[in-house]
Amino acid sequence: MAEEKEEIKQDVKEETQEPSLEQQEAELEKKIEEDKKLLAETTDKYLRALAELDNFRKRVAKDKEDFVKFAKADIVRDFLPVIDNLERAIVSAKEIKEAKPLRHGVEMVLKQFVEIFKKQGVTEIECKGVFNPDFHHVVHKEPAEGKEDGEIIEVFQKGYMFEDKVMRPAMVKIAVKK
Question: Structurally, how many domains does the chain consist of?
Fold first, then answer.
């Protein structure tokens, strides 16, 4: 019995004793590894959130840019008939001698429209040379001497581009071989 009491006292003493330095060091190493892992996970989450925020900002900026571009395109499309009518007015006024001051005023207004269009990225489609289905719409074909097959010989209505997009193709007459 005395021996049992002595063993129990020894066991209790061992349990109540401070852990050895090696045990403390092992526990601290384990805690450091856990903290490093938690730090790495948190850093990864932070970097992913930062990248997601950056992508979101870029998407919003692109959407805004596209919205402005499409809004401009709609306005340009609405003003094309106005330019056509101003050009028709100039042609009509050339026939009337007394309308010279009026024609001059209309030419100035047309010039302003064209300058504003250029400033906003609108350009007239070139109608010299051979027909291109991406930029021209054939409304009439006619045999013409001295002209190549498919060569544009007359422009009925000007075409316009907004930046890199065709707003309205040019309506043209082309030459065909006899």
Answer: 2
